[in-house]
Design brief:
This protein is of the alpha/beta class. Helices cover 59% and strands 14% of the residues. It has 16 helices and 7 strands. Helix 6 links the parallel strand 2 and strand 3. The longest helix has 95 residues. The protein starts with a helix and ends with a helix.
Amino acid sequence: MKDSFYSSFEGMHRGDREDIKNRLRVYLPFIKPFSVTSRDPVLLDLGCGRGEWLELVTDVGFTAKGADLDEGMLSYCTDLGLDVVQDDAISFLKQFQDNSVDVVSSFHVVEHIGFDNVKLLIHESLRVLKPGGILILETPNPENIVVASSSFYLDPTHIQPIPNQLLSFLTEYIGFARTKVLRLQENKILYSKENIELIDVIAGVSPDYSVVAQKKSDDSVMAYFDEAFNLEYGLSFNALANKFDSGLNNKFHKLSIEIDALKRELNLISEACSILRETNSELQSQIVRQVSEITRQNLEISRQGSEINEIRHLISRSIFNRIKSKIRSIRR
């Protein structure tokens, strides 16, 4: 097994072989019908890398052939006894006859080769595929903002990201009968997460996607593939953004209810304060009246006390004068 920069890079940043094989199982429903529609299904994998997909499809009955330019990546395949050659994708395709293979696959290649070569690759794939044949093109998903603005450029051999709308249009424009966009490798927790956060919208969209395109065939043949084409795959930017908006709206609605409840409480408190102020004012008036009455009564008591003192004084003087007069009369 030989190491190269790219094989070492893939080993660090893409994942181990078993992890990649598990990811690729999502495509098995698109290729298993060939066990019914084709006697000896043939698959070509362009940019086959370490051979995870070749190994997987061989296990389900395909004759699988692969091509890659990187010698270090191919060494993994040769060590596993896989049928591979060192060649570029388009040159490899041109070696095959019209209507001769069932599946053409290409995982994380189209972002490396430029738009003109992508068109040529799709043209050549349509040519070599049998009626009902499948083309699989997987690439980083620029709907994911982190992928589009950062992680895509981690690979120095990437040229430019390709939006799924462009790639799916291109396959239909070139002549494929139907296409399906599969969004891939998203965090499954996001499907059930109730409170979607802004970071989920920015980084949670499926980081990869693929376009699966099928060449026209009889309806009876196409029907075997309907189930796989009718399924929905992955998380789009719009889906997560809508969940985020819905979560915000729910939060605002709850806040609005809480604010309305607080307003009602404040109104009740304000009414209670008004009642207290009115009650306090009445109490103050009553107290003033009572103080005035007490003051008046005190003054009346004082006046009566003065009169009593005056009477006492007059009585005392009268008694004294009478006693004094009596004493005088006795002396005489």
